[in-house]
Give the backbone structure.
Amino acid sequence: MALDALKEALPAYAKDLKLNLGSVISTSQLSEQQVWGAVLAVAMATRSPRVLAELEPEARERLSPEAYTAAKAAAAIMAMNNVYYRALHLIGDEQYSQLPARLRMTVIGNPGVDKADFELWCLAVSAVNGCGRCLESHEKVLREQGLPREHIQEALRIAAVINAVAATLEAEGALATL
């Protein structure tokens, strides 16, 4: 199992990550599609070849072809949106927010899966990419669609743990080459 391989690869000092990696996925209140869509989207957002190599095959197995594609689309569109909207936020001049973005984002309106699932994956990727404006926007849409805060928190926990695993494994790989 991919999770076991990632846990085994983590150094002893990252014991908490080992424990969290299993628990955020196996004890989640989210549906299997929500969990594994978030796992795939976040793995892509981390840009870690090792994490992607371990988690992508299992995500592909557990997701319908439509959900698999939509999770990848969430990672792709948020890679663009998170940079753009984070930059607007950091500039601090609200007049930029009044200008049209003129960026295609049609996948958000028609992701090919349940809109709440796609929004959840976009939220998780936005957490990894650190875009407060996108986090606020996706959280608001999810709450309006009736998703409880606990489910939103689950997606954030998945994002946090997978991101930490990716960062740790990439840093260990870099240290091994020194």
User: Anything to note?
Assistant: The chain has a mean pLDDT of 96. Residues 2-176 form a domain with the AhpD-like fold (CATH 1.20.1290.10).
